[in-house]
Design goal:
mainly alpha; 6 helices; 67% helix; 0% strand
Length: 129
């Protein structure tokens, strides 16, 4: 059985060893929520929250572009490490965005779960109503 994640005190690194994907997302959600109220000089995430939604969205856009470029490069080189790294950056900044708006990964996972056994074509058509 996997241990429950506990966010480490500020400044300590959190290890992802032996955590499930869901545990990692929950731990990140907790840390991101905690950093919203911290001194912007103490943490990158706190500084993003302090700068506001526009700065966070700028980072999401930047990471999206970098992920697209990494995917194109991976398609020709066969090396996927940069793609994985850029996707992690994109996911991270998207989680910061959700946190800033009072949401978290659980909301996204619930939506993905809702869609799980539904054809993508059917699900997309249902959004156009």
């Amino acid at each position: 059985m996997t241990k429950s994640p506990t966010p480490n005190p500020p400044g300590e690194k959190t290890s992802g060893e032996n955590l499930t994907s869901t545990d990692i997302l929950k731990a990140l959600d907790q840390i991101l929520a905690q950093r919203k109220t911290e001194d912007p000089k103490s943490s990158y995430v706190a500084s993003l929250h302090h700068k506001g939604l526009n700065k966070i969205l700028e980072k999401v856009g930047e990471e999206s572009t970098e992920t697209i470029i990494a995917a194109k490069d991976a398609a020709t080189s066969g090396n996927h490490q940069e793609l994985i790294s850029e996707t992690a950056d994109l996911w991270f900044h998207t989680l910061v965005m959700l946190s800033h708006l009072g949401e978290n990964a659980d909301a996204v996972l619930a939506e993905l779960s809702r869609r799980f056994n539904t054809s993508g074509l059917v699900e997309k058509a249902s959004r156009n109503k």
